[in-house]
């Protein structure tokens, strides 16, 4: 039963790789991490989070010659010491044991198979590698990885997530950076990420999500505790929000808060399930919304690293991922924004005022 349904060998080089285009040397500044092992987490064709999601993205990128414009990263598996900075040893051992025994259901939503443990280790490793490159080379990056991670708690897998990829990478990055941002635009609130960093001011966590919807967390009043008070920003929105609403919130709240915080690294939980065609939620975004959000984030002039989260309509997922990559590459969007005179909803304006009043970084 799907409780989330809302009703509907790393290359070593001394220099950055270059690509020759029109007889000119082009610096490849976008890293994309992918490994064929990400297809080995075989949850079943009827499970929303299945390998076909990633296969569709790969076909779209190949069709549009994206690979010739980026630096492809062959990601390693995460080391256990780094993983244990976020997850308990018992939780890690339980996942390992379950996969060795043939797999099974960790909860009604979360399936694991004999290959899931190794795949999950590499999913974390992909993001860690991109973060290290962002810190040392200032390159943007995106991990085309699965399983997703933002629901995973320190001692529990849930919501299709085994290990919390973005939390593991962020925790690793805090050893060198004193200000990191995690921006979660998945339509479902990242309860795991919030829980892990709830008492910390580094990273700053911002989530924009639909409510009510699984996992039924992420209320505005959940602002953090202790040193983390005020560094956990939730923007819960009702169903039906459009590109116009999201753009307004980005411009009036999210980007100003980010520029005020001045992060040295931006990590994004890139779920694409707020798309209007997604079957597990009820938002009304187009793929262009993700292009616009990414372009706005680039105005902060901060390295950006993304990891895949949700997105369960394959075409919408692939197109939205492509739009995000186009924005990172400073290319034009696939389609021009839909100028149908969408009005900013009253709810959006009220929510923006509320958030700006509550959160003082």
Labels describing this entry:
361 residues, alpha/beta, Arginase, Chain A, 8-stranded parallel β-sheet, two-stranded antiparallel ribbon, 10 helices, 12 strands
Explain how this protein is built.
With 361 residues, the protein is an alpha/beta fold. It has a single domain (51-335, 343-358), classed as Arginase, Chain A (3-Layer(aba) Sandwich). It is built from 10 helices and 12 strands. It has helices spanning 51-63, 80-83, 89-100, 116-137, 165-173, 191-197, 243-261, 288-298, 314-328, 346-358; strands at 18-21, 24-27, 30-33, 71-73, 104-105, 111-112, 140-143, 180-184, 204-210, 232-237, 265-270, 304-308. The strands form 3 sheets. It has an 8-stranded parallel sheet with strand order 4-3-7-12-11-8-9-10, sandwiched between helices. A hairpin with a 5-residue loop joins strand 5 (104-105) and strand 6. The N and C termini lie far apart (40 Å).
